[in-house]
Amino acid sequence: MTSSISTNSSTKETSTGLMAKLSGLRNLHVVIGILLLATFYVSVCNLAFAEGSALHVSDYTVSLFGKYLCYALLALAVDLVWGYCGILSLGHGAFFTLGGYAMGMYLMRQIGDRGVYGNPDLPDFMVFLNWTEMPWYWAGSDSVLWMVAMVFIGPGILAYVFGMLAFRSRVSGVYLSIMTQAVTYALMLAFFRNEMGFGGNNGLTDFKEIMGFSLQSPSTKLGLFIITALVLAVAYVVCHYIVNSKMGRVVTAIRDAENRVRFVGYKPEDYKVWIYVVSAMIAGLAGALYVPQVGIINPGEFSPLNSIEMVIWVAVGGRNSLYGALIGAIVVSYAKTRFTAIMPEAWLFALGGLFVLVTLLLPKGIAGMLPGIMDKLKGKNAPEEEATASEPSATDNSATENKGSEVKS
Amino acid sequence: MIVDKTGTPITETENIQPDTRHGVILYVEDVSVSFDGFKALNDMNLYINDGELRCLIGANGAGKTTLMDVITGKTRPDTGKVSFGQQVDLLQLDEAEIANAGIGRKFQKPTVFEQLSVFENIELSLKGNKGIWASLFHKLNGEQNDRIAEILHTINLIQERNYPAGRLSHGQKQWLEIGMLLAAKPRVLLVDEPVAGMTGQETERTAELLTSLAGEHSVVVVEHDMAFVRSIARTVTVLHQGSVLAEGTMSEIQSNPEVIQVYLGEEQG
Ligand SMILES: Nc1ncnc2c1ncn2[C@@H]1O[C@H](COP(=O)(O)OP(=O)(O)OP(=O)(O)O)[C@@H](O)[C@H]1O
Ligand SMILES: [Mg+2]
């Protein structure tokens, strides 16, 4: 298990040849395996061991892990556009939050007449605003199908329209990043307004149940955690397929030499719009899974800072590596949970410091460090395994590839 | 939507067939390009015949690269017409559409996809559907694999097939770019300074390759290396300050007094 990770990441950037493809596949199995095993372990420890037992995992912890997995899914989305296509989106929080709102609207409708005002037709905040009927865009929001569709359509449309405008006019680099940031900021201001019909600055909350299951019940919480893990696994497989397809190679070429790609006959704009939309949809999905587990969605989630934090996850974990994104999201979020419990005011400084450190010392993030660590752990097994694992020419390659990656970093 | 000169829509640039009944595949007529008032191309007229090998020479800044930029859609001319065959108006197409229509280009400064392997660079350049869905579900078939192997052999990079292209030497990058050109199977090859950075032997092989391509393809070569030009040239066009100064065989050009004065003269002197 350990060796496959190291083999893969050392050949990653150049991923050609049969060897690299094989180890890429092994790496996929390892990541999915670890994810599913961890999910299984947490589930068993939550169910089978009583509170007080050393092995017990509390309901609170289950929800916390569920939240981390949502972040991991979100990080995957950011990595897809930034790590592989070079689009530094500083506004992915917008897609996440829109997905969250789609879920929030559905959950709002499930409250029915159990709200504070007991109105069977209108959510509490609308009654409070003296509205007599629901705005048109809430139509259908009580259906699961509508919700699932909107989780993809909302972020997808925003990404498509933005992408068409920005990429078609060949905006890139810093200007693009600033534009993405402006979009999420504008959405935050808009959603703060009561007239928007999304609950103003309180957002949507006080949810009761999802598809008939009480959100307060521990088994629902565990179920949501497991579903999040499964969705993450599927999304990981999809992203793995994308980045290892010819699409992935075109996108990498666009990242490194966008103008040159045109003269080979590809339209970079089309590719960028496509990957941006896919990424936005994954981010929306992450938001939708997040909301029932934390019980609230409000405009604060649109905050530009959130979007920047996502980029830092990926930078810490290692951009251009899918499992790096997962590791980064989970490690930084865990650090945040710990840190904010002790000195919440200082978190932003810590985060900024972390970003600077990683940029300076670990340009390839944690994922870039793994091969070295694995080699050390492997110790004297390493040469033996290399000899069995590679054909003559591949040994030659891996040596040069390692050199190549040094130059690149 | 893309339309040809008569207004008939062309849906697939891949299927564009230039009308070469008059024997000319590339028309450049009265083209001017200026950068901040400086005329890089000045009423340029140039006709490339179907299947010919044409050399473009001219001093630094004569406008050779700019001409290629105009033909491939990188730079829009201020005035003039550029067409592929008689009908396909290249000024209506963007870079990718022009490439798919069958005009390939090797850049003066070799630009390959450095993070991708040599093999992948060729793979991406293969002629074929360049759309999103085609790329997503693309699988190399046996024929394409053979084609790539053949090209790798031609450009002498079989050993290096799995190297990241960024690690190649300057000359090898030149070859790789030529390989990428071959993979695209273009009707017209625009080759900007192909032998810069190559050894004498490599230069010789490039000359052989380009000569062998002419006939089936039309090849336009820009080169400063006069020995190289002499070895491949049939027709030579001399550019000077953005316009055509002279055109003819190498010996005609060499005896042209104007050319001797502005170009060859300074080199021989
Ligand atoms: N984008 C640009 N902006 C401003 N000036 C430009 C630009 N591109 C080219 N020029 C100018 O146009 C003139 C023609 O340039 P071009 O690159 O076509 O020359 P060339 O014949 O290819 O020269 P060389 O042999 O040095 O490659 C030069 O004076 C150059 O400085
Ligand atoms: Mg030039």
From TrEMBL, chain B:
Q: Where is the ABC transporter domain?
A: 26-266
User: Which keywords does the record carry?
Assistant: ATP-binding, Nucleotide-binding, Transport
Q: Which InterPro entries match?
A: ABC_AA/LPS_Transport, ABC_transporter-like_ATP-bd, ABC_transptr_urea_ATP-bd_UrtD, BCA_ABC_TP_C, P-loop_NTPase
Q: Listed GO molecular functions?
A: ATP binding
Keyword flag Ion transport: no
Q: Which domain of life is it from?
A: Bacteria
Which PANTHER family does this chain map to? CONSERVED COMPONENT OF ABC TRANSPORTER FOR NATURAL AMINO ACIDS-RELATED, HIGH-AFFINITY BRANCHED-CHAIN AMINO ACID TRANSPORT ATP-BINDING PROTEIN
Q: What is this protein called?
A: Urea ABC transporter ATP-binding protein UrtD
Which species is this UniProt entry from? Paraglaciecola algarum
